[in-house]
Specification:
314 residues; alpha/beta; 2-enoyl-CoA Hydratase, Chain A, domain 1; 8-stranded mixed β-sheet; 49% helix
């Protein structure tokens, strides 16, 4: 089944309907069919190769887009899930455990959304609680103890901002993760697969290699939140998305991420298997590169990488 089209994809959808209608009515008219098929392909290429930042945000939020567990199923083997933060409870928005990718045994930490109401309630719409970040840190320390690399999948609109999360110190749990990940004595690879929202994303995003899917976004605030503050209305979200420089290309230019993972034309939801292969290759390549570094060099380069962020000359 084809994924639901987004608003900006409607012209392409209408052309595909015309093509399907032509094929069903006059299958013998191969010349017209061939011309229309060529026109469709040219339109697809032109549409998806020239996406605006706001259009990429829409793709990153597409309900059919593969989530972390989809990549876990296709990229990893021998997964054993580990539960709980040993303080409060187990956060289903942050599944984690031990798995294997290629020749590497590693700890995998994920932010997971749901596809229906029941799943979204279970996963809290992909917004982790404090216990999710504390569980992540517990597993990172386990990885450090047994010299296992850490792989994190980032896909959240942000950490949960509710009263319960505040009572259990959500800001403190994220801050501790930032500090401890900077000092963690094992390689860390993070992959932003969809939404990378604010501190909720950064709480598992301090890494030696920060990878980002082509149509994901990574930002200190959502475009709608930025528009509400600066323009006093959410309708200015497209302008905010452009101003925030939240796309993979923008962030690579600013040296805030280390690599862009290509997606199938139209987004990862159009070919999940192809997207998973690209993600798997990118993670293995990053682990191979980090494996060659000594631990003191790894920590020094991680520190230097983040110290250089935000420095500009006038």
């Amino acid at each position: 089944m084809k994924p639901l089209p987004l608003d900006f994809e409607q012209p392409l959808l209408e052309l595909e309907k015309c093509l399907d209608d032509l094929i069903s009515r006059t299958p013998e008219d191969t010349d017209r069919i061939s011309i229309m098929q060529e026109k469709r392909e040219l339109m697809r290429i032109d549409l998806y190769k020239n996406l605006t930042p706001w259009q990429r945000v829409q793709i990153a939020r597409h309900p059919s887009r593969p989530y972390a567990l989809d990549y876990l199923e296709r990229c990893f083997t021998d997964f054993v899930e580990l539960h709980g933060d040993r303080f409060f409870g187990d956060d289903k928005a942050m599944p984690a455990g031990i798995a294997r990718i290629g020749k590497y045994r590693c700890v995998v930490i994920m932010q997971q959304k749901g596809r229906n109401v029941k799943e979204n309630v279970l996963r809290n719409f992909g917004s982790p609680h404090p216990e999710g970040y504390r569980k992540a840190l517990r597993l990172m320390r386990l990885a450090e103890k047994f010299s296992l690399p850490v792989v994190t999948f980032i896909d959240t609109p942000g950490a949960y901002p509710g009263i319960g999360a505040e009572e259990r110190h959500i800001a403190e749990s994220i801050a501790v993760n930032l500090r401890e990940m900077m000092l963690l004595k094992t390689p860390i690879v993070s992959v932003i697969i969809g939404e990378g929202g604010s501190g909720g994303a950064l709480g598992i995003g301090v890494s030696d290699k920060s990878l980002m899917l082509e149509n994901a976004y990574y930002s200190v605030i959502s475009p709608e939140g930025c528009a509400a503050i600066l323009w006093k209305h959410r309708k200015h979200a497209p302008e905010a998305a452009a101003a925030l420089k939240l796309t993979a290309t923008d962030l690579a230019d600013l040296k805030l991420i280390d690599g862009i993972v290509p997606e199938p034309l139209g987004g990862a939801h159009h070919n999940v298997s192809e997207a998973a292969i690209a993600v798997s290759h990118a993670i293995i390549s990053a682990l191979e590169e980090l494996e060659k570094k000594s631990l003191p060099d790894l920590l020094e380069e991680r520190y230097a990488k983040f110290r250089k962020m935000g420095i500009f000359s006038e």
